[in-house]
Every structure is written in C-alpha cells, then in structure tokens.
Automatic annotation (TrEMBL):
Residues 135-146 have a biased composition (Basic and acidic residues). The keyword Cytoplasm applies. Residues 12-139 form the BROMI N-terminal domain. GO terms for cellular component: cilium; cytoplasm. Residues 772-1187 form the BROMI C-terminal Rab TBC-like domain. The gene is TBC1D32. This is Protein broad-minded. InterPro entries: BROMI_C, BROMI_M, BROMI_N, PHAF1/BROMI, Rab-GAP_TBC_sf.
Amino acid sequence: MSQFSPEDEVELQSLLRQLLTSIKDRIAAAPSIESAEEILLHLEETDKNFHNYEFVRYLRQYVENSLGTVVEEETETLARADGQPAIGPGQDTLIHAITRRTRESAEYKQMMQTLKNTMIVVVESLINRFEEDQMRKEETDQEKQHGQSNSHYTDNCSDSDSSFNQSYAFLKQEQLQALAEKLDSSRPKEVRQEALQALCCAPPSDVLSSESWSSLRRNLSAALAEPDPELSDKVLQFFAKTLSSSPLNVTREIYTSLGRLVYYIHLSFIFALCVQMRLMNDFQKEVTTFWIRHPEKYMEEVIESTFSLLSLHPEHSGTSPGTEKSLEPVHLLALLDVKATWFKKWMHGYYSRTVVFRLLERKYNFCVASVPGSVQRSVYTAKELEYAYFVHSLCILGKLLIYTNGRKLFPIKVRQCKGAVVTFVLCIASNIYYSLSPSGLVMELLWTLCERTECTAPCLHQTPVIQTLLAPVIALLTLSVFCLLSSTTAAHVIVQFTQKLLDKQLPSLSESEFLHTVCGAFIFVCRQMYNTCEGLQVLRPYGLHRAIAAAWKKTSSLSDRVPTPVPGASAGTSSPSQELQNMLWEEMLLDSLLNFAVTPKGLLLLQQTGAISECVSYMFSRFTKKLQVSRCEKFGYGVMVTQVAATAPGVMALHSSGFVQALVVELWSALECGREDIRVVHPKPTPMDPIDRSCLKSFLSLVNLLSSSQSVWELLSHQPLANKSEYTLREIPTSIPDLIDRLIAVNSDAKIHSLFNYEQSHTFGLRLLSVLCCNLDSFLLLESQYNISALLLQSQGENVTDEFIIDSLSVERNHVLVRASVVGGPSERRLPPRALQEGESPFPWPMFSSKPLPQCYTLETLKANQSKQDCEISTFLASSKDTEMEESWMEICRRQYCKVMTTKPNTLTGTGRSLAQWVAMQLLCYQDFVTSTAQVRMSDPHVCVFLFCLICRYGSYLKLLKEDAVQDLTQLLKHIELFLSTQRANSASELTTLQDGYPGHDWLASTVFLIMAGDMDRSLRLLLNLSSLLTSAFIWPARIHASVHVPVEIAGSGIPPVYWCTAHYVEMLLKAEVPLVHSAFRMSGFTPSQMCLQWLGQCFWNYLDWPEICHYLSTCVVMGPDYQVYMCVAVLKHLQPDILLHTQSQDLQVFLKEEPIQGFRVSDYLEYMEGLERSYRSVVLTDMKNIRNPVA
C-alpha cells in the first residue's frame, strides 16, 4: 500500500480524531503550545496504551505493508554476506544495519512522502471541521448565556459535541485575580460557588502558575474548612481534577496544599476530612508510578508533606485537653488504607526508600513512635478505630524493619520509654497468644522477617523474642523460661517437644484432634534444620529420625490392618475421613524421613531406619506427578535423587522403585522416538550439538545416577549385555545394561539398524561412556565385564579404508580410548579434542585401532628432584630421634612440614623417600586407631592385568618404576587384600558391593607403591603401619570397607565413611566458606559429595599431577585426617570461576568429571586450609574420631 484512497483518508481522519479525544485531558493541561508538542512527541514513553490506539495500529500496518518486502530482502542479503565489514557479531549491529539500509531505500522515501501529503490533508480537514464546530458552539453559547454576569469567563470554552470537546476555559491573570477576590469568605455563598465553578473549568497549570495562587489557596482553604458541603465539594473537585490530569510538578503543589488544609479543617467535619484524606491516599498510591521521572526534590516535598501531616497531634490543633482524645489524620488514613498500601509502595523502590529513611531519621522520627488514641464515634467504635490504627502502624513498622536503614531508626521513644528493635518484635510476638484477629497479621509480619536473612538475626534471633515465641512450648515441657539462653537452645527445645508429640507424652495434646496438625508443623520446623549439614549436627543426638520412623511404622501397621470392605458388612469403627487423615499423616511422616537424604550423614541416618526403600518409592510417586518437594524447597528432587544415587543402598532403592526404568524409558523416548503428542508439520531439524537440547536433561540425570562407582557396580555387576541377533524397532530398553547394549556397545548391524538416529544416539552413548570412564573404578568394571576398549578398537578398525574415515563417531571413539588408556594429571597427558578444525587437516591427531597408543598423547615429564633437597627434612628427623615420644614433637613436626611445603614443596616428591620417612615417624607417634596385625600370606585374587599395566606405565612415565614392576605390584595387592579380608565383618546384606570384598581397585596401595619407587617390601610395611592410623579410615577406602572397626549396622550399610563424614563436612564448610559454589551445585542438581567421593576414592588420579597427589596424602597423614575435608573445600574454591561458568551452561557435572583440576597446588592453599582447621577442627576431627559410633 503506497497510495491512500479517499476512503483511507476518511478512515485516517476518524482514527486521528479518536486519538486526540483519548489524550485531550493531557493536551489541555499543557501550560503552552510547546508543552503540548512535547506531550505528543513523548506519548509512546508516557502512555501505556499507546500501542493500543487504532491510529497507531493503522500506521504500523501501513509501514509493514510498504517496507516488509524491503526488510526481508535486506535481512537475507546480510545473512548471506560472509565477512561483511559493516556487520558485527552482535544481533543489535545487524538490526542497525538493516534499519539504515531500509531508511536509505527508495521505498522508504516514497512511503514518507505519501504519508506526509496524506496527513496534511487529513489535519486540514480536521481543523476546518473544528473551526466550524467552534463557531456553531459560540453562537449557541451566546444565546444561552445572554445576560448572565459570568459570561465573559466562558468565551473560550467549548462544550459542543465535536471531537475536540473541552471542559476548560483559558483565563487571563486579571480573571484569576477576580476569581480569587470572589472566593473571599466575606462574599455571598452564591458568588463563591460561581467562582468555584469557573475555577474548575480552568486549566490547573494556569491556576497554579498565576500570581493569584497564594490568595486562591488561602481562600480555597477557608472554603474547605467551612461546614457548607457544597463549597467543600467544589474545592475537592478542583483538587481531584488537578491531581488526575497534571504532571508531578503541578500535582505535588496540590498535594502539599491539601496537607496544609488539614490544619484549617476542624476534625468535627469528619465527612469532608475523610473525602480529603481519601483523595490524598489515592495520590499516595499512584505517585510512585511516575515520580522517578522527575527531580528528587518534588518527591521529597510530597514525602515530607505526608510525614508533616501524620505528625499532627491534638496538642498541635489547639483543642482543649479532656478525657477524650481528638481524632488525628493518621486515624483516618488507617481507616481508608488499613494495611498501609501507600507506605509499602513508597518503600518498594530504593529511589524513594532512601528519602523516606532520611526524613524519618532527621526530622520525623516521632512519626515512628506514634501510638493509637481512643475516641468514640457514631460509626466506628473506639476498639475498631484502635484496631485499624494498630494494623496500619504494624504494616508501616514491619516494612521499616525489613531494611537496614529502617532498623537504624530504633530505639525510639514510646510513652516515656525506649523501644529497640527487639522490644518491638517482642511486643508484636506477644499479640499472637492474646488476640485472635491480630495474630494473623503478626504472623504475616514474622514470616516476612524470616524470609530475609539480614532481618532474621537482629529481629528474631534474640533471646527475648525466642523466649516469647516458645513460651507455650516451654510451659508444656514444664521447663523454666530462664534456661532458654540462645537460638541453639531453642532448637533443642523444639526437637524435644517434637519427640514428645511423636511419642504422645503430652497428655494435654495426645487426645486432641489437632495432634497430627501440631506435630506435623513442628516436624516441618525440624526439617528445615536437619536438611542442612549444620542443622543436622544440632539435632542428631536426639535421634529424631528414629522417632519419626517409629511413628511411621506404627501408622503404617494401622493402615495395613484396615479390613477390606465386604458388601453387606458393617462399616466398622474407622470412618473414611479418619482413614484419609491416617493416610495423609503416613505420607507426611515418610516425606519428613525422606528429607534426611538431603545431606550425606542424613542419608546414613535414613538408611539406618530401614525405611529408605519406602521413602524413595514415595519420592518417585511425587516425582512422576511433578509435585513440589515442599513450600520451602526451590530446586525439586534433583539434589535429593543425586544424593541418594551416590550410595549402594540408595541406588538400589531407586532401582526397586522404578525410577531407573522410568529414566531410561524417558531418555529413549526423547532420543529415538520424539514427542508423540505433537503433530509433525515440518521435519525435525538435524541437531547441531553432540547431545540435542531435548536429551540434555536425561543425559545429566544419567550422569548423576551413575556418578558413583558404587551405583555402577550395583546396577551393572554380573549383568551381561543382550547382544541379540535381531532387535525390533519397538523394543525399548528398560535398564542401564540395555542402554549400554543399544547405545554404547554398537558392534553389529542389527544394533545399528535398530536405531532411527544412529549417529546421534551412538554419540550420546559415547559421551555417556566418556563420563563413566572418568571414574576409574567404574571403568574397571566396564572393562572387565564388557571389554569396552576392545569394542571401541574394533569399531575404529572397521572405520578404515586406505586411511581412517574421520567423522563425529570416530573422533568421539578416539577421545574415549585415549581417556581410558592414559593416566595422568593436567600436565601429564594430552586428550584429543572432539571438534574438527578448519583447514586442510581437520583432525591432526593420530587415530589408532590397536595398542599401544601413539606417544603424542603423553606429555614429557619433568626431571625428578634429587636428594639434595632432602637434607633439611633428613636433618630434622635425625635430630629428633631422642625426642620422638614427647608430646610437643608432633607440633614441631607439623610446623616443619608447613615450612617445607611453603618454601620447597617439591622436596616431598621425587622418589618419595622423604615422604615415606615422614609417614613412618607419624606411625610411631600417632597410633589412635590401632588394629591387630594379621599374618600375611599369599592369595590368588582376581586381578585386572590391563589396569596393572596402566598403573605401571604411569610409574614408568614418572621415572619411578622399572619395566618389570607389574609382578611386584601384583604381589603387593595380594598381600594387602589378604590382610584386609581378615578385618572385614560378615554381612547378610544383598548389596553387590558387600559380597566379594572391596568393589574396585585399591588406589592408595598403588599410589604408595609408586611413592616407594616400586619397592614391594617397603610399600607393604608402610601400608600395614598406616592401617593403625585414624587417617587410614578416610584416605584408604579399601581399608575401612565393611570393617569390623565400625558398628555392624554401619559396616553392612554399604555407605563409606568418606561419604557420610568427609563429604558431609565438605558440604557444610562449602556453604559457609564458598556459598556461591554451594548454590551452584544446588541449582545444577549435582552434589559436592559425589565429586569428593570420586576424587578421594581414586586419590585424585587423573585430576592432579603426581606431585600434588603426594602432597595430598602427606598433608592428611601429617596434619590430620580433617585436612582431607579442607583439601576438598580448597579445590572447590580454586574451581569457583569455572563452576559458576559451567552452571550457567548446564554442564557442571560433565565439566567436573572430565576436566582435570588445572593450576591447583596444595602448597598455595595450605595457609587457607590452616585457617579452616582453626575454625572447624573441633567439630570435624571430633566427629572423625567418633567413627565407631557415627549415628549416636
């Protein structure tokens, strides 16, 4: 559409008339023509309905029709242009380029010229129409108003039915002066009414800017204060019209005038005063939407006028004192806006909140100290008025308490006494128990304070407040109020009360119909504590998990005894409503038990109750229904599922509940089937990422499920692959072995043809395999059971013609083979990339289909430090032979170690002799976990030759082992396995990981073998002595696995101490010391405990370079086992920037598992770890020493 027809011009004229009619009030209020033009130019910025006007829609459609083709052509041209210098990488630059080219086009110029010519015609037509209407109206007005005394005031006022119908008369200064004189209180009532009528027709801007405004305001005040309702109504009409149609620089003058008028209105004229306060309150609530666009002084004037009004008290109004107090403006404001909505809006934005705090602090502090008065009226009783005032004051003071500057206004002087923040909170808390109606308001305020961490400590975590809140609980427990000393003690009171409710030891509540409601509420409070690591530390001694489990078992047994309904039989004693209540109570108890699984130690407590399977089944039922965890939980069941999946009993509970099967089926549906509820109109685009976004969630869920080697062993051990000769297209895998068979071990044409998206699905499987291989124990199982390496090499061999065919699958297989076949830290091995490069050689890395691997994937090792650096340590050890048994020797030893680590950290690496000497001296002086030494004999356990060769190849690379070291390593592991087997408890558990010794490889033994340079005898002697140290229970997983040195129920749980102790405290310290990392794990659905379990289980192999592995072990042995916790916290703190980055890209799990820890040195963080020791050793080390009784 480039030309306008006559019909179009008529339509444009009508639409333009509608637009002008809609904004006529704003144009009329403009003080000048220039201001009216400014209003029209900025209409889009100031009018929220701008894009809804039909005229604007018409113009937008016209522009789209005229320039749509041009914009599309320019977009395609710029998109096809490769390396166009005018276009940058950002989308904004592209939009600017398209806009510039469009405006330079001939179509744009033609459109603008046509539009300009047409609008000129349309506007001229409207002007002519307006002039005709105006002349006709003037004639009518002259006939109607002939002979009237005030006709000269309405000469320019149009009341016609034209589209420009105005209700204003433009008055001169002389006319306004005359109106001011006529409004004088000495004039007759009729004259004043006529003057007010004329004033209401005048533009407010003209009135306020006139020289007569001061006298007008004085006379308006007098009229508003008079008892005549007609005069006061006219005055309020004038103010209301001004407030609704004027900018802030005008309305703030009206508002402040209204505030001053209160001083002149007698409070007995209650109706007029209520109308005035209602008008002011409406303005208070609306002014926040636009005052930020004006100078701050305008806003400050409005706020100060309000506080000045609220500070008006009876003693200021000149009334004589009596027994009955006079009504104050704040009472009326409380009646009109009982919840102080105006004040909440003022406090919402920092822009206005700052001014409020400044004025309250400097000038109007007594406003905060206002207390309700008492007066009897015909409509509102004294109690009703006092209650409205109370609610209004409560809302204002509660809003002030939320902010730091608001709390600084306290203490305040209230009735000759000072009231601090705690005193005020104490007062409102007391209202909970003495008045039913205010209790809900007070609880709402307390909830608001609880939701803000910065408010909780100064307002609620105070002894008097806690005492008041817990007073009924303490009374029922028959305890003294004075024994409640702190919020920690309050936690003890709450858990004791909850236990008594569960055990029905409170007679006054045991028979109450609200017992379950009250008990459930207190359990929920306890849940908020025990689902955090620090909260669980407080509640653990009370055994709340046992009390909840006992209550659940009792309730469950009652529901099991409910007879099956039989037709014709009596209904029995229990009603359907009671059965429903019992069912809800049972689910609530299960849900409360389930929440113990949020923390590692809590999961151990849950496993000890014997209800872990039922809890996981309950979680799965809610998970499938997509129900929220609780009203305080934000991130769903992701973290809880990951925490449960990290342990053997947890993953078996997930498997038996159907969670694993549901996860596999959901993955297969997304990967192979697609969504069936969407009708396919366009073919699905080919995914550009290795893992399509539609499958990413399922991929990460699988990574979380299989993160722990224990979960992999439970789900895969003794589970062969199907390897069928034929697969139907409708055959869906339902287990992890089925998934490996279909997506990873794709070694036949039948498997290839069974996949709709072979390349995408196989790539998905290889990516999953890559993550699994990062856990060396998981890879050991896959290799020994499925011979994964041979399958991948076979597939690579089949991908060769004259040379390797480079595609996404061959590149992915090459990466997995190198990752699984080469051991080393970040500077010890080189992993090939997964992406092709541009140029003639897209993949310069050599591929292979047989072993050994090309040398390019192993980096050159640095020369080992020689024994000259060992002199300082050797000198200290030699000089301390006579003082070894002194208590101070250990502290001297640790200081010397820290000094060496800080100045010469490489001294403790090399051949490892110095480290061995340090450990040997430790074993002589620090035997706090003594065990009996069994006679060592030869045994013949199953040994993975592939893994031994891998370890010895790494030792040879480090120049620590000779080529024939495999035999010595084999002998060492045989001795150690026999020794440890004599100290394992017999277990009746059905868990696979507890059946045949330690599941996985003894990585500490292999590390010590490399430290001792392949000396089997010295390695064995060191390990046997190390087993007597407490440290061995944590740095040596095979040592404590199912050990007789822990309680039988803990040994049979299948949960290692490194998980329920070390990882538990890592999460606790992480939340306090590195909160951003803790939050990142929380949001990603992953847990720090799973990564710590993997790092510590394989002694940081493949994650740290060899010197740092030595430093990790020597630090834990010399400095104490709690340094294992501090080490993990230091590593996560070091990785904080990368963790935050990969949390945003939603691949945190994959990054932490696949990438080595770059740039981390133990010596750099030793001082940081010493700081953690000073803060947390009393808690962490004490619990580690209590390993024999961890659930007490």
